Structure formats: structure tokens, C-alpha cells
Amino acid sequence: MVQHGTELRMFVSAHKPVEWAMPDGYEMVQAGAALHPHFAELTDDTGDNISERNPSYCEISVLYWIWKNIDASRVGLVQYRRYFFRKPWQCSLKAIMGLQDINAILDSHDIVVGQPITYHETVRATYERMHHIKDMDLMRAYIAEHEPDYIPAYDEAMGSRTTIYCNMLAARRDVLDAYMTWVMPLLDYAYESIDTSQYDDYNKRLVGFIAERLFNVWLIRHAKDYRIAYLPYNMLVIGTMKALKSSLFTLGLTIWRKLRG
Description:
The protein has 261 residues and is α/β, with parallel strands linked by helices. It is 43% helix and 16% strand. It has one domain. It has a seven-stranded mixed β-sheet, with helices on both faces. It has a two-stranded antiparallel ribbon with strand order 5-11. Helix 6 packs across helix 8 and helix 7 packs across helix 8. The longest helix has 21 residues. The chain is globular, with a radius of gyration of 18 Å. The protein starts with 7 loop residues before the first strand and ends with a helix.
């Protein structure tokens, strides 16, 4: 039975202070707080946490903290630079989806995620071009051994030109629990098995990048199990003129992609 009016807590992962106020109801959580001086009221180094792994896990250290320490029937995570919007070309503070709107969507859906983006190449090709493809090959082998039912979804996700990035979501507590229970052993395996000592700083964010791809795998595998809502997400632009220029550019890009098919 759908529960209406259920509490939603939306958190914002941030690794540094921001110059703007959080949108109404959004709560900032300092990511990687175990490694740096504190600047936020909420930090990911309290309770059950993996804060020290943030340089590799990225916003997943905050998602883990939410999973283990926040007692709310609905929870969500966005990034300090990226939020859910009503339209794909929106990017200003005032256009960020409010908690009431997201909560209303969760009255009829189990999880809210970013709208898939289509690229000119496959997800695998993009990963191979930007990262180290051997790491995803290692993950496939591990999944084949320990979670073989997910291999068709893995191959579909990596072979697709459409994907969701940024590890952002809003979901019922039981749905988040199902996802995190599945993905954390895989991410921990990647962290413990892959030597990143020779990687550049960008690619040392290994687990965060792998998590983005595995989130798509999980969504494909459970597409018939959960009611999934897709929302546009975008990088926040501060300043009226900058936001307007960015919105017009994104609107044009959106139209171009639709015309391309």
C-alpha cells in the first residue's frame, strides 16, 4: 500500500563549503570529513561510516552514511553541484526540484533517478577512453562468479549508448537497502583488489566511477521489480545571466539530440 505524506530527507554531498544557501529542506553532508577539517553540521565520519575511503568512493561515502545512520522512510542524495530539475535545460537555484515535489513522485514510485543520457558511443567505449577498462572487466568476472543473474543486465548496461551518471537518487528506505546491500560488496571488492597507485588523481576516484555503471546494472536488473521515475539532472549554475546562457545551451542540445533520434 502506498504511504502518502511520508517523510523524505534529501542530502547534498559536498567536499568543500559552498557560497550559496542549500535549497529549502536539503541537508548538506560533508564528504570525506574524516580526512579534513569539518565545515558542515552533518559529516560522513560519524556512526557507521567509510569516510576515509571517500577519495575513491566519492559521494558513495555519503550514501553509505545515509544508509547506515539515517532513520527516515524516504531518503535521497544529490551533489552540491548537481540536482534534479523539472526540465533538462534548467540549472538555477530556484529551479531545483523541491522536497514536496520529489516526495509526491515517491507516493507513486519506489525510486527516483536521473534521466538517462544518450551518447555517440557505448558506455564501455566511454569507460575505456576515459578510465581503465581492465577494472570493469574485473568487475564483470567477479559478478559472473558471485551474482551471475546480473550478467545480462551488466552486458546490456555496458553495451548501451544510454546511461545515468552521478550516483543521485531518492528512494524508499527498503529500496535503498536492497541496492546498497547488493552494490557495497562489489564496490569493496574493487577498492581492495585494484591497485590505483599509478593512476592519475582523476582515476583514483575509481569506486565512484564503477558505482555509476553498477547503478545502471541494478536498475536494468530490477526494472520490473520497482516503479522507477526519471528526472532531469543538471549542474547548478549560480548567477542569473550564467544560468540563462546555460539553460539556452542545454535546451538547444536537448532539441538537437531529439532531432538526431
